[in-house]
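Hi everyone,

Forwarding the result from last night's run.
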Amino acid sequence: MSELRRFVQVDVFTAEPLKGNPLAVVVDAAGLSDQQMADFARWTNLSETTFLLPPTDPAADYRVRIFTPGGELPFAGHPTLGSAHAWLAAGGDPKKPAMVVQQCAIGLVKVRREGGRLSFSAPPLTRSGAADAATREQVLRSLRIGADELLDLQWVCNGPEWLAARLRSAQAVLALKPDFVAMAGLKLGVVGAHASGGACDFEVRAFVPDLGVPEDPVTGSLNAGLALWMQEAGLAAPRYVAAQGTAMGRAGRVHVSRDPGGSTWIGGDVQPLVHGQVRL
């Protein structure tokens, strides 16, 4: 039998409502089946929908399950920040005042609160290193670019199997018109540097056609993987801002910082837009 459950929709990684990445959150998801969650995620037709549940790990404040229209994810960034915001707004009381601990399929993820902004600790990479020649050729076909335009191609997996392509400039990233048929089987992120002195340091785009998301507006998991790789390789400063969603008319901003202890934090603003109930 269906029942009413608390529901919110938030906009993540933006200080401007309607300019980030929307997220649907079912706050009271206990008792829902896998099929009900998958059906609702397809119905919302957003890049991700999350379901908040009681934790099974005593160290966690809540547990989350993350669904795209095409399936479940073990971890994702903008759902982490949006879910933490929704849990706190619904009266969640974290065990530690300045830190929320989220349980998801990859384990525990820390989310810290600094003023009005939330940041999650970038999970360690489960796969890294350069992609092989065959994958490189597929990426060149997918992005419709020449071999000399692709500076690096690295695995930056942290749950999602992200492949990161670094191009010569932010302008080259924004000019891409991908071939999604050629991209089959890939979760492909692209990054290029902006000229120094601007408001943003990098431009990022994310393409996930196999999950029903040809282009994701703003992607926390990809930016987390990019940050760990680029900071370690000396390609990015300890603190920087990445823009994403520009090509889609959005104004996503991802605030990256590496603390003295070596942890990298991926932060963004969250704008609440819709509050209500959903019958599931």
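The chain has two domains: 4-119+267-279, 127-266.

Cheers,
N.
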